[in-house]
């Protein structure tokens, strides 16, 4: 796209957005960003703009969109309110490595910025510092003070969001950057956006050979797959690699959904609220292949030696970001590159080497054993663990589930079985409430062929009513499943016999959702859950299933045995050479 000397900075920014791979803007016009929206008015055939009811809706949608589509969406609104209201999604994208481009203005008051004008965010006396504040929750922040910088920094934002570990990149615009013309000299300094393409490394032959040498000595290897393996190509490469060499696959909680849990090689979800079988597989492994995971301390049960121990296990780590390799655990060898490229190369290097992964999965206890609870069909409320199981049975294979923070997420991590074709996302960085419905709305834009299903508690549901309004207004399709136990379950069950500020008034959530314009079903039994889901699936549009769940069931009921018992001696495999 050509730039003109008469183009204002805002027009140049709009032209750059139109050159993105899949131009999509979530936001609300405000401040000087109104000028960028004005320029986009004539580009609506190329750029899709989505009005959100509140800035946090836009940032969470962008985070989920980036994770699913593997390309950044743009969030654009007045800077004060992206920071003040929309910080949840930016922080989640930063901590969870989702690409996003955040375009905001400082509303600094121009030549009056040193006199503390209304809403000023450029850091002068009497003002707040928008750039410094966003720097705390962004991968990188650019500050544009002239129109050429506005264009170039928007181009760089796309590049930096996608190079290495993905993340949100923020551009803060001074008013002059958007309101001044580019000029002839400025145009000569500008180039097409395609020249700012992200660059990521190709795995080296040497690192592949070293990893194959480590695996050649293995007896009971296991794969730990993380959220970074979520792309279609990475998941296909992961499945093919595990199948070709008979290696069990365990996922981190943020990685749940990247591997088909119906597979005989599926070890489940590790961690404090995953399956005991998954932790057992990892603990007994002599070689760990960590794929697109940082191996964070929360995944490793605060780095328990009887789960993962680099002194007795050889770790091969594959990651797109060099800083992540050997960050929390020393590695035998690291492979720098995308899993989709590295795994076929490693498979070729291993040749016909195969392990008895199915046998090890069975020996660990297997996945999804029958839930040891009473028959709840005649009770007045639904058991939340049974609800998670029913969702995995009834929902179609093209469903993408999004979870909120709190107990609902724990039950889904532990008891929902991700079948072939399904996907599951949870807030894997900050873990804030008010995530699931916004994220499911983003699925509509990232992959229109998917069925978005949001699972939330009544606390998160109340925080997301404006997201339901956006979904209805934009005529999208999604189903929200509300676990209604009239409390902040995680908080109250953690408070024990001293609960405080954790009970809710028994609001009629079904009536509220109906008033917004949703199709609504309520359930107090498992049969009503099944029939309600089928009715909403048939109705299409925006549906809400209010499930009255048992408030006496606690997240502690699914805590892994390893999280509560002391350290145990685990066999050391001396045949493995750890460097």
Structure characterization notes:
Helix 3 packs across helix 17 and helix 15 packs across helix 16. The C terminus is likely disordered. Strand 17, helix 22 and strand 18 form a beta-alpha-beta unit. A six-stranded parallel sheet has the order 2-1-3-4-6-5, with helices on both faces. A six-stranded parallel sheet has the order 9-8-7-10-11-12, with helices on both faces. The protein is built from 23 helices and 18 strands. It starts with 8 loop residues before the first helix and ends in a 15-residue tail after the last helix. It folds into three domains: 188 residues, 3-Layer(aba) Sandwich (Rossmann fold), CATH 3.40.50; 159 residues, Rossmann fold (3-Layer(aba) Sandwich); 166 residues, Thiamin diphosphate (ThDP)-binding fold, Pyr/PP domains (Rossmann fold, 3-Layer(aba) Sandwich). It is an alpha/beta fold.
The mean pLDDT is 92
User: Judging by the overall fold, what is the CATH architecture of the largest domain?
Assistant: 3-Layer(aba) Sandwich
For the record, the CATH class of the largest domain is Alpha Beta
Q: How would a crystallographer describe the biggest sheet?
A: 6 strands, parallel
How many discrete domains?
3
Beta-strand segment tally: 18
Estimate the global geometry from the Cα principal axes: globular
């Amino acid at each position: 796209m050509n730039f003109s000397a008469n183009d204002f900075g805002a027009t140049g920014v709009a032209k750059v957005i139109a050159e993105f791979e899949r131009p999509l803007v979530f936001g609300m016009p405000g401040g000087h960003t109104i000028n960028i929206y004005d320029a986009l008015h004539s580009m609506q055939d190329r750029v899709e703009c989505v009005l959100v009811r509140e800035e946090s809706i836009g940032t969470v949608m962008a985070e989920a969109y980036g994770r699913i589509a593997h390309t950044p969406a743009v969030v654009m609104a007045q800077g004060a309110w992206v920071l003040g209201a929309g910080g949840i999604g930016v922080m989640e994208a930063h901590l969870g490595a989702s690409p996003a481009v955040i375009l905001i203005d400082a509303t600094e008051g121009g030549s009056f910025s040193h006199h503390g004008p209304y809403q000023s965010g450029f850091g002068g006396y009497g003002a707040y510092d928008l750039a410094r504040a966003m720097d705390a929750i962004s991968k990188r922040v650019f500050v544009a003070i002239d129109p050429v910088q506005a264009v170039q920094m928007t181009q760089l934002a796309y590049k930096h969001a996608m190079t290495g570990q993905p993340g949100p990149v923020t551009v803060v615009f001074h008013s002059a950057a958007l309101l001044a013309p580019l000029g002839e000299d400025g145009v000569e300094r500008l180039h097409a956006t395609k020249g700012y393409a992200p660059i990521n490394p190709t795995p080296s032959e040497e690192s592949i050979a070293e990893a194959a040498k480590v695996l050649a000595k293995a007896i009971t290897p296991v794969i730990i797959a993380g959220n970074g393996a979520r792309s279609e190509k990475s998941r296909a490469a992961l499945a093919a690699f595990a199948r070709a060499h008979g290696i069990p696959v365990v996922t981190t909680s943020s990685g749940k959904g990247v591997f088909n849990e119906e597979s005989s090689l599926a070890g489940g979800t590790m961690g404090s609220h995953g399956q005991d079988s998954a932790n057992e597989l990892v603990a007994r492994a002599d070689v760990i292949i960590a794929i697109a995971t940082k191996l964070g301390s929360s995944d490793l049960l605060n780095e328990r030696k009887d789960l993962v121990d680099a002194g007795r296990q050889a770790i091969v780590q594959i990651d797109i970001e060099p800083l992540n390799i050997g960050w929390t655990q020393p590695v035998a060898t690291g492979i720098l590159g995308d899993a989709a490229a590295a795994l076929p190369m490693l498979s070729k290097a291993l040749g016909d080497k195969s392990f008895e992964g199915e046998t090890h999965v069975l020996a660990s206890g297997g996945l999804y054993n029958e839930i040891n609870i009473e028959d709840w069909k005649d009770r007045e409320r639904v058991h939340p663990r049974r609800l998670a199981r029913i969702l995995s049975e009834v929902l179609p294979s093209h469903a993408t589930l999004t979870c909120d923070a709190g107990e609902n997420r724990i039950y889904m991590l532990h008891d929902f079985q991700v079948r072939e074709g399904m996907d599951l996302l949870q807030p894997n960085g900050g873990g804030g409430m008010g995530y699931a419905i916004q994220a499911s709305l983003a699925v509509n834009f990232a992959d229109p062929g998917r069925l978005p299903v949001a699972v939330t508690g009544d606390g998160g549901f109340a925080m997301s009513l404006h997201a339901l309004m956006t979904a209805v207004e934009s005529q999208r399709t999604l189903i929200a499943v509300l676990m209604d136990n009239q409390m902040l379950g995680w908080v109250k069950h953690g408070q024990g016999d001293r609960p405080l500020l954790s009970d809710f008034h028994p609001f009629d959530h079904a009536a509220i959702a109906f008033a917004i314009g949703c199709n609504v079903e309520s359930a107090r039994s498992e049969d009503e859950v099944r029939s309600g889901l089928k009715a909403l699936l048939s109705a299409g549009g925006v549906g809400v299933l209010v499930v009255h769940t048992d408030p006496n069931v606690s997240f502690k009921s699914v805590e892994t045995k390893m999280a509560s018992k002391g350290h145990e001696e685990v066999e050391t495999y001396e045949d493995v050479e750890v460097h």
